[in-house]
Amino acid sequence: MFKVGDHVVYPYHGAGTIQDIEEKDILGEKINYFIVFFPLNHVTLMLPENRVQDSGLRKIIETTKIEELATALKTVEEPASKKEAARPYSKENETLLKTGCIMDAASVIANLTSKEGERTNGLHMEDRKNMDRAKQFIASELMLVNDYSEEEAYDFIMKNSQGA
């Protein structure tokens, strides 16, 4: 399972570090809680051990996956049809972000960057929110994987996405 000091990713929240494991007595039942601190947004969460598997909590990616991430930030998934291309992707993007997979977040950025380049008046508000969430999610993980500063993490994203 996980231990104190592990760098982990919690879907839709980003990457953080397990700071402690506390045992709590809840209605006579002893439950271990993982105390996870997320440095990018300065949030601490308590996750019950018995729900960790269902929560999607995972260890951060290996440094060997950074090149794959850079490629994913550039790879746009083409819609199967023009009808599909015309419809909004905000729900699909939200679903991808909730998976907690860094490659899914990279896909959101690549697709929205491409969409933004095709539009004269920029992205819709929901798409902009999803783009920001995806960037924050990836930046938080890069900060822990490569010991990047927040600025270096966002620079990596910008440099490797199509919009650079």
Outline of the structure:
InterPro entries: CarD-like/TRCF_RID, CarD-like/TRCF_RID_sf, CarD-like_C, CarD-like_regulator, CarD_C. With 164 residues, the protein is α+β, with helices and mostly antiparallel strands.
Q: Ends: how far apart? A: 39 Å
Radius of gyration, in Å, reads: 18 Å
Give unreliable regions as ranges.
none
CATH class of the largest domain: Mainly Alpha
Count of alpha/pi helices: 7
- What is the H-and-E element order? EEEEHEHHHHHH
Task: Tell me the domain tally.
Answer: 2
* Biggest sheet record: 5 strands, antiparallel
Under the CATH scheme, the architecture of the largest domain is Up-down Bundle
Number of strands: 5
Taken from the alpha-carbon principal axes, the silhouette is elongated
Task: Give the helices and strands, then pairings.
Layout: E1 7-10, E2 14-26, E3 29-38, E4 43-48, H1 52-55, E5 58-59, H2 66-72, H3 82-86, H4 90-98, H5 102-118, H6 125-145, H7 150-160
Antiparallel strand pairs: 1-2, 1-5, 2-3, 3-4
Describe the structure.
There is one protein chain. The chain has 164 residues and is an alpha+beta fold. It has two domains: 7-59, Thrombin, subunit H; 63-160, CarD-like, C-terminal domain (Methane Monooxygenase Hydroxylase, Chain G, domain 1, Up-down Bundle), CATH 1.20.58.1290. Helices cover 45% and strands 21% of the residues. Strands 4-3-2-1-5 form a five-stranded antiparallel β-sheet. Helix 5 (102-118) crosses helix 6 (125-145) and helix 6 crosses helix 7 (150-160). It is elongated and about 60 Å long. It starts with 6 loop residues before the first strand and ends with a helix.
